[in-house]
Amino acid sequence: MSNDQTIHVHEGAAGTHEVIHTNGHGNGHHHHKQSFITKYIFSQDHKTIGKQFLITGIIWAIIGAFFSVVFRLQLGFPDTTFPFLEKIFGHWARGGKLDPEFYYALITMHGTILVFFVLTAGLSGTFANLLIPLQVGARDMASPFMNMLSYWFFFLASVIMMSSLFLQTGPASGGWTMYPPLSALHDAQPGSKAGADMWLISMAMFIVSSLLGGLNYIATILNMRTKGMTMTRLPLTIWGLFFTAILGVLSFPVLLSGAILLLFDRNLGTSFYLSDIYVKGHILPNEGGSPILYQHLFWFLGHPEVYIIILPAMGMVSEIMSVNSRKPIFGYMAMVGSLFAICILAFLVWAHHMFVTGMNPFLGSVFVLLTLLIAIPSAIKVFNWLTTIWRGNIRFTPAMLFAIGFVSLFISGGLTGIWLGNSTIDIHVHDTYFVIAHFHIVMGVSAFFGMFAGVYHWFPKMFGRYMNNTLGYIHFWITMCGAYLIFWPMHYMGMAGVPRRYLDFTPWTSFNKFGDLNKMISIVTIVVFAVSLLFVFNFFYSIFKGRKVRTMNPWEANTLEWTTPINPGHGNWPSDIPEVHRWPYDYGKDGRDHIMQTEPVNPGETTH
Amino acid sequence: MSTTWIIVALLLGFIVVFQIAKASEYVSILKGEDKTRKDNNRINAFLLLVFLIVGMFGVWYCNERLKGKILPPAASDHGEKIDTMIWITLIITFVVFVITQILLFWFAFKYQEREGQKAYYFPHNNKLEVIWTVIPAITLTVLVGFGLFYWYQITGEAPKDAQVIEVTGSQFKWEFRYPGKDGKLGKKYYKNINEDKSNPLGQIWEDPDNRDDKVVTGEVHVVVGKPVKFVIGAKDVIHDFGLAHFRMKMDAVPGIPTTMWFTPKYTTREMKAKYGDDFNYEISCDQMCGPGHYGMRGVIVVESEGEFKVWLAQKQSQYAIAHSEQPPANRSSSPADSTSNSKPTAFLNK
């Protein structure tokens, strides 16, 4: 589709929506009447939807992180009682001590909330919505209505998951992976009663949301780029979000099938996952099912899921590093190629989560090979980031600091992936604290760092104001130190074989040696949680009271979003969509600090 | 009461930090935003360097503090292979870790924004990119090679003379079945499970191979230096038969038996002499299995062939227990059901 057509289509769309005025008057903000509801609640503006995802994600992040603080209290201070917990949680924390069933509910919800609701919806939902139309040069998503539905399905999923927290029998507590038979048998634990059904229904809604969003992102990137915006002139943010959307669209349906079969097993007496079961004195009739089938279906999403979480962060970090180093990203094509390689390999490695399930060792060895292959594109990305800052002229905005922190954490966590992906080592450290350390560093904290970097960097675009810098620096330094203090020593616990998901180590002689360490980790967790609340405060305060942005391009970046007005209306550009003439990374070229994508190539300009 | 004070203190801290942050914004306007940015830049660049140095020291310090707390050397032949593999991987990844972290923080510090400094326009360089594609590829090939070499040895067929023991996990205990003199485990079917009639595993009594099979709970005995093969299953949900000291682990899946084998190298007595009296080869459940997961503990006793034979001879076959008129309570009070197991599972009876 040529650009003229694109713009034409938009004019057509604008007519029906009465939203966009491409009349060249330069004042194309909302002439038409918009009620509060259509502007802020059932909005079809991609920027508002992005903010909705972000704010919902922030609320979920506070809840999910608070849960981790609660169970860290128990793990760090096993002999102490916390009466205030009883006030909050009632019979789940009788006498100020966590009930084991509630502990498992907390860790399950912590994982589910952070993986899906925060780092999937909150991260790629926010930035895909905000940045794709702005950076490819489109007035909105391919289908703004579907985009709105995507948010509201996410909202519905959130409401269901939130309500499950208030069930008498508690929310789902089979771990965020919800392996059957534990999650399938009502008798196996209280959390496998109504809580598990609500978890599965909520996930189904979440998957609908993610598919509606993902299809939209792909359609927009492929079809609605402005004139001159070839695929190789896309900012790396868009490439990251593009591959994320592809991963989501191809893998989430598999989880949906897994979840629906589990619902059938739970409620309709089918035997997809159940066989030969004797639970709590009952002999079940189910024979011939395989619990391992669920694991295959789950991890066929579950592994791409970690790349769904990390690729947007990688894209944003690449962009932010380049802008703040005043230097082009090194090896643009290699960066795109490595994203592509990661995207393909993401589908071929899922069974490395299952090395000790009794899987055929030959099959296991194939997955070892494919898993370790991922280290190659990852290494390319790391070396390219390092070369990007090499001989730069670096500005340490909070966003840049979080981007550097991201690379540091990605290295630390990525390298332990080489341990876990090798099945021989995995036998020993599988399901120990080593795994917790690995995935929290490489996917949890790094993705959060990417998200923080993105929020600090694009906050001026979202709200026309800056966040407070000093609070940003405090936030960064405490979180950075905290991340390493919390998760680095956990590798040692893993080497000692300490299993995950244990509430109490006192009955054990092999695992009870880490009391002081657990205490330290819990204290640091509380500090980091407090600082995160400071960030949240900074975020909301700055929306209303932050320093105002006075220039269109506060970071002196090249990409298209900075050619829009400081507070762009629906439709983004008051007049015509700008035309693109070059890639987005001409920083420091021919003695010029930066050359925006919209500037035509000068006759005497060097080519790279 | 103290909670209230903590909350008050936190709130105060919040307000103080926030006021400072707000004040700094005004100061920056007074000083000129450009100058403030340059000051901040210098401070943060310096802090990144400090973070690198303190961080590297922290890595060393953490190792000093914790290296004594990780497990003693592997107590099985397979475990030694896993430990070797860990060492190979550790050396390679640690070298990469140190180099890349130093480069990252050093570059960040060295190339901080300076007056008159120009960023170097360096968009790509094929030679460099080929180098750092090929080097990781070669390194990983080496790691995959070693890894699979050991993996096939560990997951290969057990030797024919291996002692076979069946393991069954259920919420939240471990049960073990020894074949009797015939060396064969009798057939079982889960619908035959009946704990009231002393048939906890669902053995089919009509199968003559079941006549001499012995069932014990919580504690399993094996012979030092002799390969042992565990046939692992579960009754209710997925468990995991985790043996940290032997570096072994295998899921227990209802309906799908799995296996694991290894040769224990040191007896429990030797280990107790070396590492203190409270040493035990513990069996942990490593796959979340419900609210009692963290108490699903068992013990492996490694002993000489003679001791083992004496121990096993004391046990009655499950067939005999089920077919004598005695109440089932007898079985669970037998010495095999060692007290070490009763404590962690006790709360489940509530």
Can you describe this structure?
The complex is a heterodimer of chains A (608) and B (350). With 608 residues, chain A is mostly helical. Chain A is built from 18 helices and 4 strands. The two termini of chain A are 28 Å apart. Mean pLDDT of chain A is 91; it is low at 1-31. Helix content of chain B is 47%, strand content 16%. Chain B contains 9 helices and 10 strands. In chain B, a hairpin with a 4-residue loop joins strand 6 (239-243) and strand 7 (248-252). Chain B is elongated, with a radius of gyration of 30 Å. The two termini of chain B are 32 Å apart. Chains A and B meet through helix 5, strand 1, helix 9, helix 10 and helix 11 of A and helix 1, helix 2, helix 3, helix 4 and strand 7 of B.
If helices are DSSP runs of H or I spanning 4 or more residues, what is the number of helices of chain B?
Answer: 9
Q: Number of helix segments of chain A?
A: 18
**Low-pLDDT regions of chain B:** 328-350
The main β sheet of chain B shows up as: 5 strands, mixed
Largest interface pair: A-B, 136 and 125 residues
User: What's the mean pLDDT score of chain B?
Assistant: 89
What is the radius of gyration of chain A computed over CA atoms, rounded to a whole number of angstroms? 25 Å
Strand order of the largest sheet of chain A: 1-2
Beta-strand proportion of chain B: 15-25%
Please give the share of residues in helix of chain A: 55-70%
CA(first)-CA(last) distance of chain A: 28 Å
Distance between the termini of chain B: 32 Å
Quaternary structure: heterodimer
Quick one: overall form of chain A?
globular
- What sequence of helices (H) and strands (E) makes up the elements of chain A? HHHHHHHHEEHHHHHHHHHHEE
- Structural class of the secondary elements of chain A? mainly alpha
Low-confidence stretches of chain A: 1-31
Order of helices and strands of chain B: HHHHEEEEEEEEHEEHHHH
Main beta-sheet strand count, sense and barrel state of chain A: 2 strands, antiparallel
